[in-house]
């Protein structure tokens, strides 16, 4: 089937192009896009030079989307059906090796770690970017969206939401855990929102005043306004009855910050 998708050409230029999706393979779905939101990493590629983009100049961009299952392979299961409203997690692997089964497809032992965008480098495609009227994805990364979740929220959950949830799940956070989050950007704030449903003992660490205000709005009251003169360890002890926290999660991406 023919689809139309947006590619990033470099230096803040984009283009709408036509692509061909071949017959879908086993355990694949084609999703009709309702909405695809823009992630910070999308902006990174949008602003990059053509040289840095490399092969990405020829690939449909985007990886956060909500849509309706338009077609599904013959290996249809009891969970997913045509017409279901779904999201797709943006990263996947072979689905079979030890690391993929543990939920770490970026370390796929069979060398098949991929993203929705990079899935277009395979022949035939394993997946495709979401800045398109339709996109292709493996069944293993598809999640049906509950009726009470709106499209805007669902679209973001396909990247930030599942990433944050996986970390919290793997760290086994419980109602007695004390948690410090470094970096209250989009991912950190989503994680903080989830954590508020589990524990009240959350400390947020951030440099940006606007993000600190957003954290306060979602109920994170223990906040550290980080700057070079702040001793993080002392501040955490001050806010946590003299002790360090049980769990620290870094979403800043700044070396040495966590």
From TrEMBL:
GO terms for molecular function: adenyl nucleotide binding; anion binding; oxidoreductase activity. GO terms for biological process: protein tetramerization. SUPFAM superfamilies: GroES-like (SSF50129), NAD(P)-binding Rossmann-fold domains (SSF51735). The keyword Phosphoprotein does not apply. Keywords: Carbohydrate metabolism, NADP, Oxidoreductase. Residues 26-146 form the Alcohol dehydrogenase-like N-terminal domain. This is Alcohol dehydrogenase GroES domain protein. It comes from Saccharolobus islandicus (strain Y.N.15.51 / Yellowstone #2) (Sulfolobus islandicus). The lineage of its organism: Archaea, Thermoproteota, Thermoprotei, Sulfolobales, Sulfolobaceae.
């Amino acid at each position: 089937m023919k689809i139309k998708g947006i590619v990033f050409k470099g230096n803040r230029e984009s283009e709408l192009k036509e692509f061909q999706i071949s017959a879908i393979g086993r355990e694949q779905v084609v999703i009709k896009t309702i909405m695809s939101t823009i992630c910070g990493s999308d902006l990174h590629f949008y602003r990059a030079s053509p040289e840095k983009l490399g092969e990405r100049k020829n690939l449909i961009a985007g990886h956060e989307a909500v849509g309706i299952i338009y077609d599904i392979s013959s290996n249809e299961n009891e969970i997913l059906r045509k017409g279901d409203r779904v999201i797709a997690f943006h990263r996947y692997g072979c689905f079979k090796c030890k690391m993929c089964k543990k939920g770490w497809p970026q370390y796929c032992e069979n060398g098949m770690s991929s993203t929705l965008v990079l899935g277009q480098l395979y022949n035939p495609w394993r997946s495709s970017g979401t800045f398109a009227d339709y996109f292709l994805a493996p069944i293993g990364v598809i999640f049906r969206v509950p009726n009470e979740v709106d499209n805007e929220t669902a679209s973001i959950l396909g990247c930030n939401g599942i990433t944050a949830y996986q970390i919290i799940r793997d760290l086994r956070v419980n109602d007695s855990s004390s948690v410090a989050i470094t970096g209250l950007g989009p991912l950190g704030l989503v994680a903080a929102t989830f954590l508020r449903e589990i524990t009240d003992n959350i400390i947020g660490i951030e440099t940006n005043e606007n993000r600190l205000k957003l954290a306060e709005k979602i109920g994170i009251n223990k906040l550290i306004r980080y700057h070079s003169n702040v001793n993080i360890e002392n501040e955490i002890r001050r806010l946590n009855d003299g002790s360090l926290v049980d769990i620290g999660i870094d979403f800043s991406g700044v070396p040495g910050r966590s």
